[in-house]
UniProtKB/TrEMBL annotation:
InterPro entries noted in UniProt: ATPase_NBD, Carb_kinase_FGGY, Carb_kinase_FGGY_CS, FGGY_C, FGGY_Carb_Kinase, FGGY_N, Gluconate_kinase
CDD domains: ASKHA_NBD_FGGY_GntK
Protein name: Gluconokinase
Record-linked PROSITE patterns: FGGY_KINASES_1, FGGY_KINASES_2
Recorded family membership: Belongs to the FGGY kinase family.
NCBIfam families with a match to the protein in the record: gntK_FGGY
Organism, scientific name: Paenibacillus rigui
Cleavable signal peptide: none
Keyword annotations from UniProtKB, A to Z: Kinase, Transferase
Amino acid sequence: LQKPYIIAADLGTTSTKTLVIDRDGRVLASHSIEYPLYTPRPDMAEQDPNEIFQAVLNGIQAVVAKAKILPSQVLCVSFSSAMHSLIAVDRDLNLLTQCITFADNRSVNYVKVLKEQLDGHQIYMNTGTPLHPMSPLLKLMWFRDNRPVIFEQAHKFIGIKEYVFAKLFGQFVIDYSLASATGLFNLRQLKWDKQALEACGVREEQLSEPVSTVHRVQGMKAEYAAAMGLHADTPFVVGASDGVLANLGVGAFEEGVYAVTIGTSGAVRGVVREPITDPKGRLFCYALKEDFWVVGGAINNGGIMFRWVRDQLATAEAEEGRRRGMDPYDYLTSLAQEVAAGSDGLIFLPLLAGERAPYWNANARGVFFGLSLYHEKKHMIRAVLEGVVYRIYSVLNALEELSGPTKEIRASGGFARSKFWLQAMADVTGSSVAVPNSIESSGLGAAQLGLLAMGEISDFSMVHQWMQITHSHKTNTEHYELYQQLTKIYNRVYHQLKDEFDAIAAFQQAHTK
Ligand code: ADP
Ligand code: DXP
């Protein structure tokens, strides 16, 4: 084969990862370049687009050198990118803003404006992006009202990957996948949505041209080709968002196979063959390809809950773990394992960072429910781990309503290091939980899309050869019955606290710095 290698570039919020992958899915080399997130105010979270662009150039150059491959052996470069970013540029691609990331919260008040004044629900139904400050739609509304001069000057409003392509090729293109996460893109028409554009006062020509995720661009500027160590005619495949590509990378793209990721935050995602939005507004729908759509929900309170236990609740125990030369998480888990499934009736609502999917209640807060004198620290640890699974289960239930029952769960993220946590997932959900070996799942997904774009494969079935299931967990039916009782109580407690969540959030806002 003349061109045996694909380069994948994954533009994340903390780093850009580059990989050289061969046609059997083997990763020959990888490289990661970090860059800062600027938070001059608590509600701001920005990055420097040029730092990211430089990371792409340097990352590709580094990975080509590490893998010791020739430019002539590169089939294509294919991209994965974080969602929801927004940059305003002028006609000459000068920056009018930094890259405003998904985590920027400045537009939070526009959720209410959209819902109450502008038929935000219909906009969500058309665009598939939940009404949340992460969404570029809300960010643009904020900009129009709060930075009118920049808003007027802007030639284009783009995301970080569009910026990279504009620098390299002088073209403004956005793939359907990232477009579908802007809150501005009509999923069924595959066009910018008129109602959403009206809501934020942006004209269609101020946005990039939407293209398929397998769209290829060629003929980059010579100086950049030289910087990357590639031929200037190397095809660049626009690719898709990191979220939908991760589903592909773990092989979760068939009916009923859902991907569950729990890192710091968490998400549940499944693939459907045409866009579906949720009449109850709970879930997102993002494109992978014209005939593959990813539906799901994200939670704020994933692994960060266990970190909170380690660093705040069970500090002495964590220290004891360290003294024994263990990872504190593993030691805390061993304590949790001394307690029976269901933590002897102690339930934890892990809503410390407020709630995203399924109910999007930013005022929700954490709750231990059912505490008695009988309960010890180890019950609390176990209840927190179980509570995170209850949260995931409530998103999974919403997803099942839209796209059918679960056949299998594919687990990834930090929690997949814990056999105990994986077993709890199998016992609470009643589905088997399998752990794939692919760590760089978004990068592998991007490489698959690259092969498809280059006409080297005709569908995604090869993913199954690229990844293996390392181990899998079956449901313990006795535990499942018990958890069914507890999740019912969990849900009732959650719904009954609605007003009290608002009250305590208001109190906290007024009384804490
Ligand atoms: P990120 O989202 O930053 O990529 P990771 O995917 O590495 O984070 O996940 C970090 C989380 O994984 C931690 O907060 C913790 O909850 C969980 N975790 C890490 N190691 C373990 C372990 N040995 N046992 C249980 N949970 C773990
Ligand atoms: C994407 C999004 C963010 C979120 C950040 O919704 O605003 O609140 O939290 P995580 O836990 O996803 O990093």
